[in-house]
Amino acid sequence: MPDLLVIKSCFLSCLLALLQTSSSQQEEQSQLLLVSFDGFRWDYVNRVPTPNFRALMDEGVQVEQVENTYITKTYPNHYTLVTGLHAETHGIVANEMYDPIHNRSFSMEGPEVYDAWWWEEAVPLWVTNQKAGRKSGAAMWPGSDVAIGGTYPSHFLSYNASMPFEARVEKLIDWFLGPEAINFGVLYWEEPDESGHNLGPESPLMDVVIADIDEKLGFLRGKLKNAGLYDKVNLIVTSDHGMTQLSHDKIIELDTYVSRDLYTWIDKSPVVGILPKEGKLEEVYNSLKNANPNMVVYKKEEIPDHYHYRHNVRIMPLIIEVKEGWTVMQNRNGSFMLGNHGYNNSLPSMQPVFVARGPAFRRDYTKASMRSVDLYPLMCSILGLKPLPNNGSLSSVQDLLVETSTPKPVVPPVPREPSYAWAVGSILGAALVIGFLFIFVQQVTQRQLPPLHLTNSEITQPLL
Ligand SMILES: *[C@@H]1O[C@H](CO)[C@@H](O)[C@H](O)[C@H]1NC(C)=O
Ligand SMILES: *[C@@H]1O[C@H](CO)[C@@H](O)[C@H](O)[C@H]1NC(C)=O
Ligand SMILES: *[C@@H]1O[C@H](CO)[C@@H](O)[C@H](O)[C@H]1NC(C)=O
Ligand SMILES: *[C@@H]1O[C@H](CO)[C@@H](O)[C@H](O)[C@H]1NC(C)=O
Ligand SMILES: *[C@@H]1O[C@H](CO)[C@@H](O)[C@H](O)[C@H]1NC(C)=O
Ligand SMILES: [Zn+2]
């Protein structure tokens, strides 16, 4: 009976196709990879040919300058990118911190980094993604090898500065492909920050470093393509801050103005926390207030509003900020670098790069600026997650995303409602299964078994 065989195989293939469609519609989650090249200033892409950054701009979006959050240092800003909060709210207010109430100190180079207590004033996006029943993967993003709120990323690498970029990328690709496949990944690389500090951003040697970052981005693009992920994964490439050139002629020695015995020095130039010894606040403040025209000292309550940097016990009673290009240390024995960041977040030199591409993003679209706090609601929208309270605004960056005829609903994470398409797919699939079974049973029973006393109408009617 060749015609029946044809019908059967057609039923079977239609059935399989439908089942695949409905199950992929059920499980399809937007995929997102957030990459930070530490200290990649916004204008580095214009300095040397950067074909891989250019490709992402052509295929996606570019935001020319990102206004990051104060202080423009690595730990505060990486936590802002994944929480949408200013440093005073997420609690990682500096690379080096002191909590005078609990008498605890934090250094990004010390073991306290792994103490979740420092991080738990906020919840990073990888945790929120997991709470919605999905998997996240993290390759050395600051804070991602810490059990924040008791939760590690589903997959992560313990921090190891010696692990090459390429090895980090390969891990992430493996995680996207499963088992336990992630839909959200974060990737961190230490350059061009390290070279920017050592060489100074104006050094011609930085051109080589920037070209190397572009090649690394090319490596990542190639790996995503080879894995069949390039057109599925939304890829965001950004950074925590920029970099500015320093000079040996622009050093402020605090010992010149006030005795070290009167205060504790927290963190490093260009923004330093000063914790005066008991009863010495006014004395220290008055000694520093008009001491040097290239240095400003703020009482905590006078820190400018636009810094959003006041409401946290980890911010010291006095903070010193020096002008762009200046370095403050206690005396010249302190370590000097040719490049630094940390200054006023409104300075163009402090602002990082931003390019992104993927199914969620518009093509060949350029926007002049955004705030780094807006990235969090943007990523939540792409992932279909309800954002936690944050300082960003989706509407400020909505224009980066493809316009959908109906705005993408922010689905409550759990439980997931089956979609309309899924329901239709399931009903059709079930209809086909029963139809197929009917023909199959008919065939089998005709050949091998005594006839069953069922009529066509008895079986098919419920389906019609
Ligand atoms: C604060 O901690 C340090 C050691 O971390 C200790 O030496 C010091 O006595 C403590 N201070 C107070 C007031 O408990
Ligand atoms: C860090 O990474 C390097 C290079 O991949 C590796 O040789 C080394 O064993 C790693 N260190 C640790 C502690 O895992
Ligand atoms: C700087 O360090 C040297 C050697 O360690 C020391 O002799 C000198 O007194 C120090 N200078 C100051 C200003 O502390
Ligand atoms: C930071 O820079 C902006 C832009 O130049 C300026 O308006 C603002 O006053 C600066 N803030 C401080 C505290 O210096
Ligand atoms: C930032 O957001 C947090 C959480 O909603 C809020 O508590 C805080 O006041 C906000 N900060 C600013 C400057 O609006
Ligand atoms: Zn950094």
Structure write-up:
The protein has about 475 residues and is α/β, with parallel strands linked by helices. The chain folds into three domains: about 1-20 and about 415-460; about 30-245 and about 350-400, Alkaline Phosphatase, subunit A (3-Layer(aba) Sandwich), CATH 3.40.720; about 250-335, Gyrase A, domain 2. It is about 30% helix and about 20% strand. It is built from twelve helices and 18 strands. The strands form five sheets. Strands 6-5-7-1-8-17-2-18 form an eight-stranded mixed sheet, sandwiched between helices. It has a four-stranded antiparallel sheet with strand order 11-12-14-13, with helices on one face. β3 and β4 form a beta hairpin. α6 (about 165-175) runs parallel beside α8 (about 205-225). Bound molecules: 2-acetamido-2-deoxy-beta-D-glucopyranose (NAG) (5 copies) and zinc ion. Zinc ion binds near residues 38, 39, 193 and 240. One 2-acetamido-2-deoxy-beta-D-glucopyranose (NAG) binds near residues 331 and 333.
